[in-house]
Design goal:
This protein has 346 residues and is an alpha/beta fold. It has two domains: 242 residues, 3-Layer(aba) Sandwich (Aspartate Aminotransferase, domain 2), CATH 3.40.640.10; 91 residues, Alpha-Beta Complex (Aspartate Aminotransferase, domain 1). Helices cover 38% and strands 15% of the residues. The protein contains 13 helices and eleven strands. A seven-stranded mixed sheet has the order 1-7-6-5-4-2-3, with helices on both faces. Strands 8-9-11-10 form a four-stranded antiparallel sheet, with helices on one face. Helix 6 packs parallel to helix 7 and helix 11 runs parallel beside helix 13. The two termini are 16 Å apart. The mean pLDDT is 96.
Length: 346
């Protein structure tokens, strides 16, 4: 009953087998000039219906985010994001370091989403060309958000319109893009570049990969310096095929979406059981595979005694009664049902 994080689970067997095949296949060109890496870029172009898409594998989500943002802003730029965004809360000084000094500017909004009106008001401030202010350069949104909610395509398009009106670029942190897409039910293109996204961090690690992320440029002009930034940042792997082999398997036969659908379904199964219990309360809508819930302490104590694992979560309204549960591509229905049985008994 481990619901701590989708970072804690293992990798899908198909992805492990793909890496093993790449390992046993003998020598291959280094630094991304291999068949796996070229094939993955072609597959991403087909998947996103964009022939001029440019993609670069990296090993971590932090690298994907900060290297992508570095291509969107000068050192004196401002990057607008939600106060709970990963780049604001969980990536230490990496955004500032890799952008050589750009400033993160929080724009609030309910349930982890940037409020479109607040963003429009911030971007309308008379700071452009004024040397005393950081210059607006980019907007970064998270899909799915840090609260487990999902931006609909029209919400993304609204934020993109505000950003582009003022000459800013829109970055999407897509660490859980597959979970978001599974919830919305549209095409990858409709939830990304057709809605106005210029560059995306496309995550696979949380959804069944060993360690594989990609920076996808829908605006190919932004990719001009990326190879140098990736090398400077230590993320140009000599044996890049072992990252790309993971993506190759991830994208084969819809594995990435099947994994996400399962994780989302397990979250809905948990929610259905928990919300039926007296004293429980959801903090946010559950769109993807993260659940933020208030539990009576009697239920929490019983679950802890039975070995259930999940994180406490800070909540101004609910204090120590708030918790986060995350389901994954390999979450067992029997674990969900056992968790609910213990909660119900308590």
């Amino acid at each position: 009953m481990n619901f701590r994080s989708d970072n804690e689970v293992g990798a899908h067997s198909s992805i492990i087998e793909a890496v093993s095949r790449a390992f046993s296949g003998g020598a291959a060109p280094s630094y991304g000039d291999d068949d796996w890496t070229h094939r993955v870029e072609r597959r991403l172009r087909d998947l996103f219906e964009k022939p001029d898409l440019i993609a670069f594998p990296v090993a971590t989500g932090t690298a994907a985010n900060v290297l992508a943002l570095a291509c969107c802003t000068p050192p004196w730029g401002a990057i607008y994001c939600h106060p709970d965004a990963h780049i604001m809360v969980d990536e230490a000084n990496a955004p500032e370091f890799f952008t050589a000094g750009a400033k993160l500017c929080p724009i609030g909004g309910p349930a982890g989403k940037i409020d479109a009106r607040k963003l429009a008001a911030a971007l309308a401030q008379p700071v452009y060309g004024v040397v005393h202010h950081p210059q607006p350069a980019a907007v970064s949104i998270t899909q799915a958000t840090e609260c487990g909610t999902v931006y609909a395509p029209e919400e993304v398009a609204g934020l993109a319109a505000s950003a582009h009106r003022h000459g800013l670029k829109l970055h999407m942190d897509g660490a859980r893009f597959a979970n978001a897409l599974s919830f919305v039910g549209c095409t990858p293109a409709e939830l990304s570049w057709r809605a106005g996204v210029d560059v995306m961090s496309f995550g696979a690690t949380k959804n069944g990969a060993l360690a594989a992320e990609a920076v996808i440029f829908f605006d190919s002009d932004l990719a001009h310096d990326f190879e140098f930034r990736r090398k400077r940042g230590g993320h140009l792997l000599s044996k890049m095929r072992f990252l790309s082999a993971q993506f190759d398997a991830y994208l084969t036969d819809g594995l990435w979406l099947a994994n996400a659908r399962h994780a989302n379904a397990m979250a809905r199964r948990l929610v259905a059981g928990l919300t039926a219990l007296k004293g429980t309360q959801l903090l946010y809508p559950v769109d993807a595979n993260e659940i933020f819930v208030a539990l009576p302490m009697r239920i929490h104590d019983a679950l802890q005694a039975a070995g259930a694992q999940y994180h406490p979560w800070t909540s101004d309204r609910l204090g120590e009664r708030a918790f986060r549960l995350v389901t994954a591509f390999n979450t067992l229905p029997t674990d969900v049902d056992r968790f609910l049985s213990i909660a119900k008994a308590a």
